[in-house]
Amino acid sequence: MHLLAAFALFLDLGSALLVAFIPTLLWVLTSPSRVFRPRNISQFFMAKTWETFGDAIDERDRVDKDKLIAPNAYGVVLDLGAGNGHAIPYLDTKRVTKYVAVEPNALMHPKLRQTADKAGFTEANGSLLILGCGGEDINTILQALGGTHSIDTIVSVMALCSVPDPQKTARVLAQEALKPGGLFLFYEHVLSPRKDVQWWQRLWTPLWVRAFDGCCLDRPTHIWIDEIGGWSDKAVWGNADETEENLFLHRSGKFVKAA
Ligand SMILES: C[S@@+](CC[C@H](N)C(=O)[O-])C[C@H]1O[C@@H](n2cnc3c(N)ncnc32)[C@H](O)[C@@H]1O
């Protein structure tokens, strides 16, 4: 692997530090006890970074997300790790009846709610539900949804990279929250098929996890979702314009749960 490609992520880290380091430092200094809550510090840093770069990253991935989400998502949609709501503009409001956002970073909720409201999903008319828990908190999710098998479409855009136990979380959401016949749509950066790239992904992951609220570079998420089983149809595809040496190699997937 070329060293330039192996170290390319430091450009992203540098840009994030430029916009988020000082605000994060000031945030900690205004209440020094925050220093004992590293997860909250990482969430603040992540929220600041996504506030600045989220739109550009969405623009970069527009073609892939358009192909994946717009023609497929329907009914009650659960957006795992919804962030600022970047998946919302891809939803066809004639086909999507309710938008359920699972987003544990409460600092992202105001922007998320604003984006949802703009698309017509509101708490007032019952078409919006924002849950502040993690995707792994299945009991809270099922309770809020009023029981099992009430979701028509799960959307996960660069979220399973950050969930603490992604295999279990994806499996439980697919088996308990998703309706028979429902869709699991994902767009995730994943572990490379190349051993040399994997080596670098594993090297950088402990650093990346700390800066970006748990985000791992070395997860074969597309394979894990396949391994859940119980699918009647499935398709996984890559980005034509990504090189094999990309540390953030993406995979899109559309899995249909057996009816
Ligand atoms: C890279 S951002 C992607 C946000 C959004 N999906 C998008 O495409 O803009 C990852 C998101 O996963 C969220 N996240 C972190 N831990 C999570 C968990 N345990 N369950 C669900 N989401 C989580 C983060 O708060 C963050 O909003």
TrEMBL record:
Q: Which Pfam families match?
A: Methyltransf_23 (PF13489)
Q: Per its UniProt record, what Gene3D superfamilies does this chain match?
A: Vaccinia Virus protein VP39
Q: Which PANTHER family match?
A: METHYLTRANSFERASE LIKE 7A, METHYLTRANSFERASE LIKE 7B
* Name of the protein this chain belongs to: S-adenosyl-L-methionine-dependent methyltransferase
